[in-house]
Design brief:
single chain, 216 residues, alpha+beta, four-stranded mixed β-sheet, 19% strand
């Protein structure tokens, strides 16, 4: 038992150290399984070496489609999509079709990231990449992990046959705290993603990169 609230990422990193299984399944407390989703996801992960993360289709308590994955990483584009969605004109839907956040088909779909509500990954892979980013308390840690894995050549897949109800947001009482942590997570993701891009560009251009932290 942890003595303090470390946040989603850090707490799960600690739990992963104690896990004994070959696959790790991160499942939110405000969820329940509709079918044998754990076995379906685990079998799929075992059968595909190049899959980094797999997750199922999420539903609301009324069995309506719920946010199950993202086709866009947190970015200006995803912010614009969110703003226009609030106005009734989801941009992502026009680009990716009706299943840009929920898979209406019966076949696996490659996505940008799986929501942390039902994320499964091989323990060996999770350990080798250092788990979730400990700098993110909550929100965007799922997208950040997927972003790193895609950069390593892994695929992120939604398996629609695995079905789970997610009572989204019911586990967080105070909306202001939720909003604060959401934007805090996005800031960390933006900073680290930009840093990686600049670092890669410097390497490509033959520029010697100096870690400025060593002088601080």
């Amino acid at each position: 038992m942890l003595s303090e609230n470390l946040g989603f990422g850090k707490a799960n990193n600690e739990a992963a150290k104690k896990a004994k299984g070959r696959n790790l399944f991160f499942l939110n407390p405000d969820t329940y399984l509709i079918n044998n989703a754990v076995k379906l996801l685990s079998d799929y992960l075992d059968a595909h070496e190049n899959i980094g993360i797999v997750g199922g289709n999420l539903y609301t308590s009324n069995m309506c489609p719920n946010l199950s994955y993202g086709m866009l990483y947190p970015s200006f584009c995803s912010d614009m999509d969110g703003a226009f969605t609030e106005l009734g004109y989801p941009l992502g839907k026009f680009i990716y079709g009706t299943d840009y956040k929920f898979n209406y088909k019966d076949i696996p779909k490659e996505v940008a990231y799986i929501t942390g509500a039902d994320l499964m990954i091989k323990k060996s892979l999770f350990t080798s990449v250092g788990g979730f980013d400990p700098n993110i308390f909550m929100y965007c840690e799922d997208a950040e992990l997927a972003y790193r894995l895609v950069g390593m050549g892994y695929r992120i897949v939604n398996l629609p046959l695995a079905k789970i109800v997610h009572l989204e947001g019911k586990s967080i009482t105070f909306k202001e705290v939720r909003k604060e942590k959401y934007y805090e997570g996005r800031r960390v993701f933006f900073y680290e993603a930009l840093f990686k891009i600049l670092y890669t560009l410097c390497q490509f251009c033959g520029i010697i990169f100096i870690d400025v932290s060593m002088f601080c």
